[in-house]
Structure formats: C-alpha cells, structure tokens
Design a protein that fits this description.
This protein is α+β, with helices and mostly antiparallel strands. The chain has helices spanning 18-25, 29-37, 45-54, and strands at 3-8, 11-16, 41-42. The protein has a 3-stranded mixed sheet. The longest helix is centred in the C-terminal third of the chain and has 10 residues, at 45-54.
Amino acid sequence: MASSTRATAGGTRVLIDWDVLIWLMRGNAKAVALIQQTPDWTISAVSYMVLVQGCRDKAEL
C-alpha cells in the first residue's frame, strides 16, 4: 500500500494514495488499520479525482 510522509508547519502529515483509499472503501483490514493508526493524514487532488471518477452514483460520494 502506498503512502508517503511530508512535513508541514504544524508537524508531519501522511499522504495516503488512492489505492489505500480504495482498499479502505472495500473494507480491507490492513487499510483500515493504517488509517486508524495515522492520526494526521491527507490525500492529493489526484487521489480525490480518482475516487470521484470511480463512483457509480452520487450515493457513493
């Protein structure tokens, strides 16, 4: 699962990639654990668009 760490003015944030988010949405235990263990995480605009494009309807947003 892909993720990277970057520093910000307020501390360190973890950038979560779209593949981790998809596994999270599917209920993958490792992805759920990663998100739960990472208190300060973010996603990129590209990852956001990948998720939006993958939604079948507005209910999945």
